[in-house]
Amino acid sequence: MTFSRRDFVKTSVLGFAAGVGTHSGVPQALAESSSAIPPDPPKQPIIISANNGYAYVEAAYAFLKAGGDTLDAAIRVVKGPEDDPKDDSVGLGGLPNEEGVVELDSCCMHGPTRRAGSVGGVRNIKNVCLVAKAVMEHTGHVMLVGEGAERFAVAMGFPRENLLTERSRKIWLLWKETNSERDWWGPAMADPHWHPPAPESKPQARVSPQRIEQLKQRAADVGIEPEFQLAAVRRVLFPLTGTIHCSALNEKGEISGVTTTSGLAFKLPGRVGDSPIIGAGCYTDQDIGSAGATGAGEENIKVAGAHTIVENMRHGMSPQEAGMDALKRIVRNYNGDMTRLKYMDMTYYILRKDGAYASVCLWEGYSPGNPHRFSIHDGTLRSEISTPLLKGYSQDWPPMPTVPEELKKDSEYLK
């Protein structure tokens, strides 16, 4: 008996349909590959967040404990910084691109329904975490970007508004006037032709007090308030990679995650980092857990950080082991070259389905006394220190003059 191609396809489809709804329709290998994680749900809801969400976790936890959806709870955390004009790394007030325009990115994953939504390069819309959720709920797509994402948001009822606050505009002016030659044009650090910048422009260099005073004076000239001038100088010298991630787990074992950001300060227009990339800035698997990231987006994209972590947990690693493995992949991409690695940083936030959690980071923090921290609520709200892979700091702030070699021999000077 012979079969035409049409008969073969028809028979195959009917055979598949006959198996739907029965265990026999699921390949055995797939049925056995779900997880090495104990299925027991946590006794209490758990929320883990980047530390800039600390002020919003308590209310989100109460919502979650009262039966609220896990994604809605996580969004309640990240929406706080989006709405805050004084938070210049997320949403309203975010530091702009090199042309002075704020562009936002976000993605979310809803574990219970195994859905995802994402937006990138969005202008004029404040709460892109909600727009990402709307993409998930109201379209057949996962990701919308640029003008199309903005038009979709407006069609869904989100108002257009100017996201560039006066404070962020003045910081951009300060950068444009004093530091814009150190921009995001190549070559990138991964390029074989890349060389470290001159010592006086290294992020890790001891910036001279004279340079700081000059920048502070220019900050005053553009109208930045005195109490914020030093902070503005820091943002110019060390452009922010500010982002917020949050994952939420309820007592039934349902889990979701969301990440939102304004991206790199002074970036090239149209740049999209890891935050809206499913599997990089955020990844949630209802069978396993959730992970998200803040830090050097380009480096995280190259290791698919959040997905790598969740898959590591699927194969039996603890949250901390899973995160450390992802960090080691970043280090391996540069063959352990500290002259390059010291220009980047990365922090992961990890929550497993059974309630185990961790946060790991590439470096200890930005400077001595300022370690990377994260927020956790499992019945008690607290801020904990992330576990570093490397000893040291990705920035050296506040800047201090170096001690000349000849003076190091003078014990009286060093007292």
Characterization of the model:
The structure is a single chain. By secondary structure, the chain is of the alpha+beta class. It is 35% helix and 19% strand. Strands 4-3-2-6-5-1-13-14 form an eight-stranded mixed beta sheet. A five-stranded mixed beta sheet has the order 7-8-9-10-15, with helices on one face. α7 (166-178) packs across α9 (229-237) and α8 (209-221) packs across α9 (229-237). The protein is globular.
Please indicate the percent range of residues in DSSP E strands (runs of 2 or more).
15-25%
Assembly state (oligomeric): single chain
Order of helices and strands: HHEHHEEHEHHHHEEEEHHHHEEEEEEEHH
Distance between the termini: 96 Å
State mean pLDDT (0 to 100 scale). Answer: 85
The total strand number stands at: 15
**pLDDT < 50 runs, ≥5 residues:** 1-26, 200-205, 397-415
Specify the helix fraction band.
25-40%
How would you sum up the major sheet? 8 strands, mixed
Structural class computed from helices and strand pairing: alpha+beta
Give, in spatial order, the strands making up the sheet with the most strands: 4-3-2-6-5-1-13-14
Count of discrete alpha- or pi-helical segments spanning 4 or more residues: 15
Radius of gyration: 24 Å
| Dominant shape | globular
